[in-house]
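Sample entry (449 residues):
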Amino acid sequence: MTKLGNPLRPHSWMGPVLAILCVVGMWTYLQRVLIGHQISYAEAHDRPRGNLSDLYPRWLGARELLLHKRNPYGADISREIQAGYYGRPLDASRASDPKDEQGFAYPIYAVFFLAPTIGLHFAMVQRSFFWILVLLTCVSVLFWLKILRWSAARSSQASLVLFTLGSLAILQGLKLQQISLLVAGLLSVAMLLFVRDHLVTAGILLGVTTIKPQLVLPLLCWLTLWTFADWRLRYRWVVSFLLTMAILCAGSEWLMPHWIPRFWQAVRDYQKYTANMSIMDSLIGTPVSWVLQVIALAAMVGACWRERGQPANSLAFAFMLSLVLAMTVLLLPSSSTYNQVLLIPALLLLVKDRHNIWRRSPATRVLFAVLAGLVCWPWISGVALAVLSFILPTNSVDRVWALPTWTLAPIPVAVGALMLVNYYQTTFDTPAASTRRRMLGDQPPAQEP
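Predicted structure, serialized as tokens:
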């Protein structure tokens, strides 16, 4: 078990101080530079701006369905959503108007979880949900540390939480009140329950996370494979998950009959008007990206097959959870930055095992150095721009507003590559069983003299 008492020796206080600097600097960059640029761009191009909360389409759709029995997937609801989200309905004849129609592209059962809020003013819901996401994100970091069996000192834990809150991907998700952060937080709770053998409760929570099915489908596939490797001891989460899904779907069908075809059509429309593509597609372009994605998927499936027999409380199981979630971000048909919240466990694992990775081979050293540079660049450039925003004219800073975003897209690629190279290199370099235990930290502790 790795223990980190002094993350930046010999001054253990430097870690939290740097983390606080990152949080304050990146929040200042977000408010003064990034959002400032978006406002000035919108004014110059007559681009509408409303509440810009990703929670709003779901909240309004839930309110109209539960209070007025209106179809949340309908075009009339979409126009009402646009009036709040953008400030006015979109006009296709205006070239400067956004293309994202902000339709209700969620399963109907999402409204059950929003039902307690539909009688409140949205501004209050928005503020409350922001702080719920902040709290859940902080807790998720601590839960992943437990899952990874990293008994870090309190100062190190505080630093890791603050660095997470100070990352541009998380800040964007918080600012938009993105439900991806809610799903990621619930996944951390569910996986901690898995590790502690509370499989029934974990299955129920996993059912709830399917409000964003694309984020959890790969993880559910891995857990299903893992379950069939020892069905007698592992089946309980499957039963509770299926019962939860049956209740949610039956309740949805009672609330709005034949909702599944409408939901599927809303998803297809969403893919069309957002023109979403995977990170690999956006970085490299097709068809080369397709080949690389197939290779990455095959490598992940191979690792899942090899490790399907690992117990849930092992570090090998935690490694596979981290790998599958990291590959989900890489292969997901969406390049939205806030989905990188799923990279948290993989990044924590790589930081925990950084010394072994660095010693392992030149390839892992290069990948680790590249990843470190990609992750640190938004903090360095964002804090610098935040400081310069108080010194230089607004126009000068506005010209380079995008600097911190330059490395965001490659981060999932670097994380996925390092996780896979680290796994397969150590697996094939030495005898498999002992190597995997050493790589994942499962080796028995050495006897103290």
